[in-house]
Amino acid sequence: MTILALETSCDETAVAIVREGNSGSASELLASEVASQIAAHEKYGGIVPEIASRNHLIYASRLLNRAAGLAKINLSEMDAFAATSGPGLASSLMIGASIAKGLAIGFGKPYLAINHLEGHLLSPFFGSGQEKNQIRPNVSLIVSGGHTMLVQVQALNEYTLIGRTVDDAAGEAFDKVAKLLGLGYPGGPEIEGHARGGDFNRFDLPRSMPDSENFSFSGLKTAVRYLLPKIAGPFCEPRTPSGLTQTPYKLDRQVLADVCASFQQAIIDVLVCKTIAAAKKYRFNLVTVSGGVSCNQELRKQLEEACTREGFEFKNAEPWLCTDNAAMIAFTALLRLQAGFQSDVTEEIDPNLALAK
Predict the structure, then answer these.
(1) Does domain 158-316 have CATH number 3.30.420.40?
(2) Distance (Å, whole) CA 173 – CA 162
(3) pTM score, two decimals?
(4) pLDDT tens sequence across 29-67
(5) Residue 238 — very low, low, confident or very high, per pLDDT cuts 50/70/90?
(6) DSSP state, residue 233
(7) Is 99 within 8 Å of 60 (Cβ atoms)?
(8) Could you give the CA distance from residue 279 to residue 309 in angstroms, rounded to a whole number?
């Protein structure tokens, strides 16, 4: 069984082809192509929906042809077609879903509408060879630019929401603080890079909602905003903002590193603490993490160390599976097709599609 999937939920155009493994072996990734739009949106400091959807139209057909060529398979030989149906930007979701539906109708094959968050949720199991045994029960931390949530996973399609962000997602906080500091976009890698040389104990930043299973990072962002003029003195020199990514203060290199390290550690502390607490409370032995922010090496390291201390197994998605990609969508579609799920081609996209209640 071979499935082709498209992912166009935001600003990455992606196409992947996944083949079912034999006799319980891992599913085989035949092709995974991604066209990034970071350069197109960087000067705006965030995603511009109109630009994103226009570029999806340009890139999609190229990636389809390239993926089919790499997989050495004709589109007519696919057993099913899939696309992300939500959550995401409506104008972007519509591009991938429309193409996948057209292919499914044209070749008379099944269509599967896939939840982007379910793709992240299941991505730690891709390539493990355990797909035939379905998804193992776990507490999953999904942490990305638009989402931060903890989910109880019992099996495929059996998910219960534990907690989620009530304001900014962790990735969104990284982007906004990076902008305050005059760093580039996306903010996560920028802050992580500067934090490597910093002292995470230098600045005392808040850890919000410590007694809740939900998350809040807006206050942390605000704390950084108020911190900057306080440390101006001998550490900074004022300058006039003239662009979206500039800040009124030019920080000394070490001070910048310390701010980044302190901010990053505040987010990591919250993510690790709440994840471990959830695993204990709901009695799960496996903890998984996925999503773009989980590419952060310090987060992976500290979460794995915490799991080891508490006797939990830890599983994370490979870094290339953490950012938006179609491989996780194809993998999820494969599991759902194996379980007897299909979608109607009349099914609409849903920019606010929920993963679990």
Answers:
(1) yes
(2) 21
(3) 0.91
(4) 999 999 987 777 777 767 787 888 898 999 999 999 999
(5) very low
(6) H
(7) yes
(8) 13
